[in-house]
Amino acid sequence: MARVLIENVTKKFDNVTAVNNVSFEIKDQEFVVLVGPSGCGKTTTLRMIAGLEEITSGKIFIGDTLINDVPPKDRNIAMVFQNYALYPHMKVFENMAFGLKLRKTPNKEIEIRVKEAADILGLSELLDRYPKQLSGGQRQRVAVGRAIVRRPQVFLMDEPLSNLDAKLRVQMRAELQRIHKTLKATVIYVTHDQVEGMTLGQRMAVILNGELQQYENPLCVYEKPANQFVASFIGSPQMNFVKGMVGEKGEQYTFECADFKLDVPLDLDHLLEAYVGKEIIFGIRPEDIWDIPSSDWIKEKIRLTVKVDFREIIGAETYLYVKAGSIPLTTRVGGLCDAGSGSNFDVVINLRKVHFFDAATKKAII
Q1: Whole-number pLDDT of residue 1
Q2: CA nearest neighbour of 48 among 75, 88, 29, 27
Q3: 3-state secondary structure of 103
Q4: How far is it, in rounded angstroms, from Cα 54 to Cα 57?
Q5: For residue 341, what are the contacts with CB-CB under 8 A and spacing of at least 6?
Q6: Residues whose CB is less than 8 angstroms from the CB of residue 126 and which lie 6 or more positions away in sequence, other chains included
Q7: Looking at residues 309-338, what average pLDDT do you find?
Q8: Who's near 327: CB < 8 A, 6+ residues apart?
Q9: pLDDT in tens, 210-249
Q10: CA-to-CA distance for 29 and 180, rounded, in angstroms?
């Protein structure tokens, strides 16, 4: 396996810039996920690494080799696509072996590699079946197996789970984690699903409009988003945002808008000095707004009475869509919460989980 280094890479299609001066490094044996909305440039980035798109400017290295002008077949990479692309007239064994046969790999070596991959993927009993005799999850495992037998330096995966139902996606996420641990592979994985990014990636690159917004481990991206877009994209339901002002300092700074006011924890005061009297954006995740019975453990908090618009009962938890005055908020509370539409409901905001963003640049302040 090998590291992948992307240096100042740009890709333009005529007058459209799909990827704009992107730089980051995937370490040897690391699982990195590229996430972002449709059209953000994540698949284009993957295709440039694969050699399926030419680079307008910048450099891409696999290991210590500059691969800008290296043909795709010579890059020692393997791709797994959204479409399984299995040959319907070939059995599982033949599908997995096909690429090796094209490279004139000896038959004995092909048999060894296919059986090893089949053991890893739990396909040993299915090698004599045709794709039409397999479930969606089994077909996806065959597509992964076809990549594994290549023994490439880097695996590139482009939304490989998007055609599966919710249950199979969960199962395949676990399978991919197990495979990565077994093979100690370098994996670059593209998805628009932030849940896949959070659960699969050792590091996550968040991309918007062809530009890298943040590149950190998933927990850091979730807890300390670099800007308002990252904060809104990572987490479900998305973070609540309220526009307001930083009030003059009395004992401590405050955030104020028409419908509520909160004191900023004293040790964060210095971060807001430059924003006194200016507009900023307050953010709080639904899971950091608590019902009263569950909030005894929270030391620094503010209590609000809100009006419930409607609720979604998910099972173990309930989403409440409420209003604090005219400000809409989403909260995530326990599944037994019985707050009905139109009722008043007391909630607590955990002040240790607040976020503030510059209203002009959208960059994180806190």
Answers
A1: 63
A2: 75
A3: coil
A4: 9
A5: 308, 309, 310, 311
A6: 92, 118, 134, 138, 142
A7: 90
A8: 242, 257, 258, 259, 260
A9: 999 999 999 999 999 999 999 999 999 999 999 999 987 6
A10: 8
Count of alpha carbons within 13 Å of 28, Cβ hemisphere only?
Answer: 4
Please answer whether residues 362 and 232 qualify as being in contact, where contact means their C-beta atoms are separated by less than 8 angstroms: no
Task: Kindly list the strands in the beta sheet with 4-13, ordered across the sheet, starting from the edge strand earlier in the chain.
Answer: 16-26, 4-13, 57-62, 65-66
Give the span between the Cα atoms of 359 and 243, in whole angstroms: 8
Residue type, 301: K
- Residues across the chain: 366
Contact (Cβ atoms closer than 8 angstroms) between residue 357 and residue 366:
no
Largest CA distance in the chain: 79
DSSP string of 193-254, one letter each residue? -HHHHHHH-SEEEEEETTEEEEEE-HHHHHHS-SBHHHHHHSSSSPPEEEEEEEEPPSSS-E
* pLDDT tens for each residue of 60-96: 999 999 999 999 989 999 999 888 789 999 999 999 9
Rounded distance between C-alpha atoms, residue 110 and residue 85, angstroms? 20
Q: Which residue has the tokens 């695996």?
A: 155
Q: Which residue has the tokens 């993927």?
A: 121
